[in-house]
Amino acid sequence: MRPAPPLLRLVGSIFAMSGGSLRAHRMRSLLTTLGVVVGVATVVAMASIIEGFNQTVKTSISSFGSHVIYIRKFRPGFYVGGFPDSLRHRHAFIPEDAEAIRRLCPDVAEVAIIAFTEGATVQYRGRSSSGLQVIGSDPQIQVVNVYDPGIGRFITSEEVQHRSQVIVIGRDIRDALFVRGENPIGRMVHLNGIPFRVIGELEPKGRSLFGNPDELVTIPYTTLDKYFPPPDNAPFYVPARGECYLNAVAVSPERNGAAVDQIIEVLRRRRGLRAGAPSNFEVFTEDALADLYNQLTGATYMVMILISSIALLVGGIGVMNIMLVAVTERTREIGLRKAVGARRVTVLLQFLIEAAALTGIGGLIGIGLGAGVAQLVRVLSKLPAHTPLWAVIVAFFFSVGVGLFFGLYPAVRASRLDPVEALRWE
Amino acid sequence: MLIHMRDLHRVYELGAEKVHALAGVDLDIERNEYVAIMGPSGSGKSTLMNIIGCLDTPTRGSYVLKEQEIGTLSDDELARIRNQEIGFVFQTFNLLARADALHNVELPLVYAGIRHEERRRRAREALELVGLGDRMKHRPNELSGGQRQRVAIARALVNKPSIILADEPTGNLDTATGEDIMASFERIWQQGNTVILVTHEADIAKHAHRAVRMRDGRIESDVRTPITTAARP
Hints:
The complex is a heterodimer of chains A (about 425) and B (about 230).
Chain A: H1 7-24, H2 26-32, H3 34-64, E1 68-72, H4 85-88, H5 95-104, E2 108-124, E3 127-137, H6 141-145, E4 149-152, H7 157-161, E5 166-169, H8 171-177, E6 188-191, E7 194-202, E8 216-220, H9 221-227, E9 245-250, H10 256-270, E10 282-284, H11 286-329, H12 331-339, H13 344-381, H14 389-415, H15 419-424
Helix pairs in contact in A: 1-13, 3-11, 3-13, 3-14, 5-10, 11-13, 11-14, 13-14
Chain B: E1 3-14, E2 17-29, E3 34-38, H1 45-52, E4 60-65, E5 68-69, H2 75-85, E6 86-89, H3 101-112, H4 116-129, H5 145-157, E7 163-167, H6 175-190, E8 194-199, H7 202-205, E9 210-215, E10 218-224
């Protein structure tokens, strides 16, 4: 007797059979695989969007200068159970703190003052732009945060001292207020009704996760303090009147840690904190923002995995159900295949491949759908969503895996059918 | 000797009840015989056919097919013997509805691991042999009953088996088409094949040259009809 053929040689033919039976039940196959489609589409769309955020964060960090040291009342983050009052009542800083840091911290190259108010409106000859964030700062911010005036110039120390009504605008503000080709420099605009002279326009940086620098206006912090003190109902993160936040930069990236330590030391001394007493302020670097960001994306990924697992589970059960139906429907076919020489493992493989092809196709549809959603987000929101290759590969293999897992039981049932019984099946 | 059976028993257990479908069958069949196995329903002829076709194994006794004891083989070994030694023709044709005639005939060769071009070539040959050379791309629902059964015969022949095993092959066909199909078996036998026909119709059985009658799980009679010289090639 001739030996049995190696299984591998049959696989191609088995694949062809599976394709045929799926084509025969197009609609049923499509509906069955819907759970897998939804699950995979979710993963791919979410991964694409998160990837878009990642890129935005990367560009925003590099455009803000990646070595900025933030000196704040509290650290950004998720506060479970609401923002605690103890942090809410902390005091921010005063311009003299900046002076002290500049004088006493050898590893700090520069310190800048930052205050801000929200919801301002700027007008020019009947055109206006509202809902703006107004930054009050000083010339040092140029060095610390790498702000370049594309045209005109930045605020000077004299203008800070004299509380001058001068304003540096972002690109989007210019587009909103001035007609194309009009030079904004020297024009008088009105910020919440108060006249300001435009002295410069910042180099456009593009949208970032932390707001769009092109939609900001910057004025001397002293001027902000004079004309736009924070209202009583201002959010807790807005510094109180006369107070400000500080941004610093170390002499070199390697001295970042030392600079942070020195700043903490100087501020503790100025606040009269005893050794061992906790600090009532926070000094942190981009890393802390990166941590926050990772917290955010981590949580998103968890939700995503949960949603898609449920969808894949539902899809998998659907596949198992339809494969059991298929095995019953095709009992005679299985009997015939066995009669003409199909071994158990061959029948098993046929149904297993069919299930895997079913979910694999579902996976491909899901990938297409997810990538489509990502493209839509990209077009509609300017978020540079883009589908990472790893997500496509993982999604595809996962959906095939679901088919193999949930298809195993029906396939085993098919392979164990007794040929005599199966051929007699009505 | 092609088939050698001694004291063959097959017992089914239906709950507590034991049914002796075969109760001691002795049967020898030589190469190139044309045998009809006859008997009323419940006589054990279907069970005997299943065992001859290696779809089932005896509970007790010996079945030797081409010097190979069948009773002790595993499911996969039985599948391989069915693939290589047996060509089935069923009453209900049992064709794959989605596949065309060519692919249906190819099926045993797929499981034999024959390569694609070789499969196509041999399946075409088999279809031409049964006179369906012009229907290769037709699906079963595009063929008449007789044509379907001829596709099934081509499928049974394609692997050049030792035995063609036909179970009521004309049961679903009208008389004229049935005669047609029986003529095909006659030709197949003349070409040197062993044909075993399972039927309860005497008209059909008379085409064979040996009639084995079953009753209550035993062979009741085994009659050879002399082969006329005209029938011999």
